[in-house]
Amino acid sequence: MNQIINMIIRQVMRRFINKGIDKGFDHFGKKKNVDPNSPEGRQLGADAKNTAKTAKKSMQMIRRIGRF
Predict the structure, then answer these.
(1) Residue 42, Cβ neighbours under 10 Å: how many?
(2) Domain-by-domain residue ranges, the chain?
(3) pTM
């Protein structure tokens, strides 16, 4: 019974942590002075998303390696 509860809590915590990391990357990855509707703004937004995605994947890989 304890293992099931721990598994569920781990899944919920993982989701909250991932959402928090995503929000942080979105917040700090934005340039404040650039209009998001301009071509420069769209490019910066796409770059920030790609950087966040790469960082998230690398963190997942590090966690997998850490299990062994």
Answers:
(1) 13
(2) 23-68
(3) 0.44
